[in-house]
């Protein structure tokens, strides 16, 4: 079978698929626009009646109850798709087109639902509203949380057409952390930030029942659940970024969400946050298991949760002093616990030889996350306290620096840490691997055979000419993917700079195989053993033969579909556009929180004649 002739397209989608996606968008948003027009005109609508029914059941305003439910279901849909999509690409490679992959449908409709939840909240914003609102029109003001939900949904949806443009300009990118993929995932999971603000606004106008109280730590758990999606490639065993990025993200996400949950609920709040993560991840595993795909197993943040609970019990401070103490404890003792769990749970465990560096960066990230989480919780309490005499306001002894300085330090620290650890380092010139390949009589089982070809499995004995780079590696693995399964197994050391694969590697069909090396602290290199010809991506075949191969930048092998002739200026412009959109989303979140917590009404609220007075 000619596997090269069967390679899927490596550029953008066919025009017909773009048209179908646009029609699906209209199918959702034309009825939504009709609803918004009728609702704002004071006419009865089915969704309005459903919102009133939901509001009565959970003791939240109409503009919070139904939109929160829609956002929750939509976010779950999007994440179900993401946790299904990433292992599909790991095992089967790129798609024939965006509509050829079933996992893209729950992602696409989930992102549209997230945007729709913000529109629902804004359309239902009548009757008793928060003191600080966002002006959409002369007689239309919406809660700040609704604007955040619309913004994050819009960013996520924008990722779909931008992804197609990206493929046309730069070639395919089947990795989770592709720039436009980050937009889609970040936009989708960022809705939780809006929901937390919307809940605070609902509390401001009188929501105080058990649902409102429980939603505090539950939403913190939802934010942990969503943000942890960025760790999925580490959870699966095909990370394309240095392990320090995983450590920093675990420290940052863990303390941000756990501290928020503890502050929102009190004793045991961190356990609710962790429970939401673990239950949701079990649910997200159903479709990959049914499809016989790899399942992402997370670090559970349990050790960090226990440390934060202990720090909270032994100290009475609940401001930024508590945040620093909790962050430092979670980033040292807590991450030591996560290191121990990584030996059991992670495909690539955290190596003990590099634990000192990991704890240094992890502790800094944990403190940054604790500062952000505390800032967010304080703003939430300010918003909820407006009208109840507990909001602190912007003036007086608690001015801008006192209210926002620590949160800004945490946010800038998180950005700086990620910038320092995310970008991989290329291998040095002249770094080579001398392979001796021997055919293996028996291969490994393949879950989803894909790509054809005459089966051939080999063991590789490899001599690496820079033994210093293989001393205490972060990982040194035999690797194969996209031929219907995925394999990553540590190499066995047989001599100075000499290693042997412990499991045979496939070198046929659509498989892509090699030796992966991650040396401290950012070097990611790969010595290729086999890859098929890929004419759609203008990639030549790499035959499986003994001999010397030069280590290449790992991303050049894992993303063979990327175009090599795209000008550097165009790459720079592409990353800038995506980066500005992502940064603008976070800046908007911060402004909405600060504005909603300002404590002074924007304008006197006026209710149109005939508008619903339902709370």
UniProtKB/TrEMBL annotation:
<feature type="transmembrane region" description="Helical">
    <location>
        <begin position="15"/>
        <end position="37"/>
    </location>
</feature>
<feature type="transmembrane region" description="Helical">
    <location>
        <begin position="293"/>
        <end position="314"/>
    </location>
</feature>
<feature type="transmembrane region" description="Helical">
    <location>
        <begin position="243"/>
        <end position="261"/>
    </location>
</feature>
<feature type="transmembrane region" description="Helical">
    <location>
        <begin position="568"/>
        <end position="594"/>
    </location>
</feature>
<feature type="transmembrane region" description="Helical">
    <location>
        <begin position="353"/>
        <end position="372"/>
    </location>
</feature>
<keyword id="KW-1133">Transmembrane helix</keyword>
<feature type="transmembrane region" description="Helical">
    <location>
        <begin position="182"/>
        <end position="199"/>
    </location>
</feature>
<feature type="transmembrane region" description="Helical">
    <location>
        <begin position="321"/>
        <end position="341"/>
    </location>
</feature>
<feature type="transmembrane region" description="Helical">
    <location>
        <begin position="104"/>
        <end position="124"/>
    </location>
</feature>
<feature type="transmembrane region" description="Helical">
    <location>
        <begin position="63"/>
        <end position="84"/>
    </location>
</feature>
<feature type="transmembrane region" description="Helical">
    <location>
        <begin position="268"/>
        <end position="287"/>
    </location>
</feature>
<keyword id="KW-0812">Transmembrane</keyword>
<feature type="transmembrane region" description="Helical">
    <location>
        <begin position="211"/>
        <end position="231"/>
    </location>
</feature>
<protein>
    <submittedName>
        <fullName>Uncharacterized protein</fullName>
    </submittedName>
</protein>
<keyword id="KW-0472">Membrane</keyword>
<feature type="transmembrane region" description="Helical">
    <location>
        <begin position="144"/>
        <end position="162"/>
    </location>
</feature>
């Amino acid at each position: 079978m000619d596997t090269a002739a069967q390679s899927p397209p490596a550029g953008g989608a066919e025009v017909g698929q773009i048209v179908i996606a646009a029609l699906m968008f209209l199918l959702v948003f034309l009825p939504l626009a009709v609803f918004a027009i009728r609702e704002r005109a004071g006419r009865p609508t089915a969704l309005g009646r459903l919102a009133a029914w939901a509001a009565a059941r959970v003791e939240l305003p109409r503009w919070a109850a139904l939109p929160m439910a829609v956002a929750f279901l939509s976010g779950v849909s999007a994440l179900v798709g993401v946790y299904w999509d990433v292992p599909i690409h790991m095992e089967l490679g790129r798609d024939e087109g965006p509509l050829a992959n079933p996992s893209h449908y729950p992602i696409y409709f989930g992102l549209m639902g997230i945007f729709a939840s913000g529109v629902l909240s804004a359309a239902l914003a009548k009757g008793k509203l928060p003191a600080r609102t966002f002006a959409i029109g002369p007689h239309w003001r919406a809660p700040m949380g609704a604007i955040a939900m619309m913004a994050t949904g819009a960013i996520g949806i924008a990722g779909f057409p931008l992804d197609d443009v990206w493929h046309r300009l730069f070639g395919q990118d089947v990795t989770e952390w592709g720039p436009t993929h980050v937009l889609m995932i970040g936009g989708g999971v960022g809705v939780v930030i809006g929901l937390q603000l919307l809940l605070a606004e609902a509390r401001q106008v009188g929501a105080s029942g058990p649902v409102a109280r429980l939603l505090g730590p539950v939403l913190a758990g939802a934010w942990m659940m969503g943000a942890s999606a960025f760790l999925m490639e580490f959870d699966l065993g095909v990370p394309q970024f240095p392990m320090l990025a995983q450590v920093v993200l675990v420290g940052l996400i863990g303390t941000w969400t756990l501290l928020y949950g503890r502050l929102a609920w009190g004793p045991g709040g961190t356990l609710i946050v962790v429970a939401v993560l673990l239950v949701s991840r079990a649910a997200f595993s159903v479709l990959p298991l049914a499809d016989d795909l790899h399942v992402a197993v997370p670090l559970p943040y349990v050790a960090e949760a226990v440390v934060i609970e202990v720090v909270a019990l032994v100290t009475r401070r609940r401001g930024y002093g508590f945040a620093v103490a909790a962050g430092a404890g979670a980033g040292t003792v807590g991450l030591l616990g996560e290191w121990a769990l990584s030996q059991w749970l992670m495909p690539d465990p955290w190596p003990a030889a590099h634990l000192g560096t990991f704890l240094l960066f992890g502790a800094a990230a944990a403190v940054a996350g604790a500062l952000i989480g505390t800032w967010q919780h304080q703003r939430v309490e300010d918003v909820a306290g407006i009208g109840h005499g507990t909001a602190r306001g912007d003036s007086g002894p608690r001015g801008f620096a006192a209210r926002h300085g620590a949160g800004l330090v945490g946010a800038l620290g998180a950005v700086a840490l990620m910038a320092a650890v995310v970008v991989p380092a290329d291998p040095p010139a002249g770094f080579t691997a001398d392979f001796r390949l021997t055919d293996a009589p028996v291969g490994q089982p393949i879950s989803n055979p894909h790509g054809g070809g005459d089966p051939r499995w080999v063991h590789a004995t490899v001599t690496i000419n820079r033994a210093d780079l293989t001393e205490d590696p972060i990982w040194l693995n035999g690797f194969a993917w996209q031929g219907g399964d995925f394999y990553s197994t540590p190499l066995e050391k047989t001599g100075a700079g000499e290693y042997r694969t412990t499991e045979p590697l496939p070198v046929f069909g659509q498989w892509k195989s090699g030796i992966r090396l991650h040396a401290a602290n950012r070097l990611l290199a790969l010595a290729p053993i086999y890859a098929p010809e890929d004419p759609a991506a203008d990639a030549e075949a790499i035959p499986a033969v003994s001999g010397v191969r030069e280590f290449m930048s790992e991303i050049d092998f894992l993303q063979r579909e990327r175009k090599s002739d795209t000008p550097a200026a165009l790459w720079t412009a592409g990353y800038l556009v995506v980066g500005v959109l992502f940064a603008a989303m976070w800046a908007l979140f911060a402004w909405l929180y600060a504005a909603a917590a300002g404590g002074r009404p924007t304008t006197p609220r006026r209710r149109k004649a005939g508008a619903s007075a339902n709370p």
